[in-house]
Amino acid sequence: MGATWEAVTALRINPRLGGFARDMRKEPTPFEEALWLQLRGSRLAGLKFRRQTVIGSVIVDFFCPAIGLVVEVDGDTHDAAVDSARDTWLGERGFTVLRFSNADVGRNLNGVLEAIVLAAGACRARFTHPPAPSLEREGE
Fold first, then answer.
1. How many other CB atoms are found less than 10 A from the CB of residue 126?
2. Rounded Cα gap, residues 114 and 91, in angstroms
């Protein structure tokens, strides 16, 4: 039986993973930066996203905790088998994962945004009250 969202978030973040996530927030790829400019500050359909977030033992590119939506932007170096295993692990814990290539983001950002909104509409709310505020500064 998979862990619940509460059990996953109640665990302390691995300091090594937290450091990697922090470093990745400081140096996003151009494609992650382009998407983040559209997602930050609840700009897309009022959805609050975080970037480079640790969930269990993985770091996800973008995460909307209110509905459990994970958005990944994949470069040429991604391993499909590893990504599939990560997606399965996240799915078993109730998360919905969307993957887009750098080319998708670079050539069709509006289509990517539409796909995110469509997927978000199919996700159910995970909280009956607003989640606790992030310990990180807003919009980073």
1. 16
2. 21
Is 137 a member of any domain? no
Q: What is the value of pTM for the model shown?
A: 0.81
Count of structural domains, the chain: 1
Pairing label, strands 58-64, 50-55: antiparallel
Instruction: Return all residues near 73 (Cβ < 8 A) that are at least 6 apart.
Output: 29, 31, 32, 35, 61, 62, 100, 101, 102, 105
Please list the pLDDT of the chain residue by residue as tens digits (140 residues).
444 544 444 457 777 878 878 888 899 999 999 999 999 999 999 999 999 999 998 999 999 999 999 999 998 888 999 999 999 999 999 999 999 999 999 999 999 999 999 999 999 888 766 666 666 655 55
Question: Alpha-carbon distance 137 to 92, whole Å?
Answer: 30
In a domain, 28, yes or no: yes
Could you tell me if residue 129 is inside a domain?
Answer: no
* Residue pointed to by tokens 């790829």: 29
The HSE-up count of residue 60 (CA atoms within 13 Å, CB side) is 26
